[in-house]
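Thanks for the sequence, V.! I ran Synaptotagmin-17 right away. Repeating your input here for the record:
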Amino acid sequence: LLELGELLISLNYLPSAGRLNVDIIRAKQLLQTDMSQGSDPFVKVQLVHGLKLVKTKKTSCMKGTIDPFYNESFSFKVPSEELEDISLVYTVYGHNMKSSNDFVGRIVIGQYSTGAPESNHWRRMLSLHRTSSEQWHSLRSRAECDRVSPASLEVT
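Predicted structure:
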């Protein structure tokens, strides 16, 4: 199995404010997509409600590393009654000057999680309310995500 790398993220939900807070902390051992110039990875996080893409945010681009530290926080407005229909799609790309950005790997957390570790992280966040829950996730291929998570098909 090709290792695509790992992503450390933190989640917490503030019911009173109806805010879902997402921290993209760091990534490690990312698959290098461009051997000639090294990797300049960034992470895109997309909020999908049911099967509709609602919002896209992205981290800054880290130059020349496959072990980037981001420590970037994003906040999404999500009323508590909508939480069960939410998926967060995290995609790591290698920034590429010449063409479109290179896909490195993806995970989906939430309603259409891409696997047990992702589902467990989501459930832990829901039960912890207001406390941040941090976890490493192994990135998956686009084909795998598209196969197991309808939310993955909704984002570009």
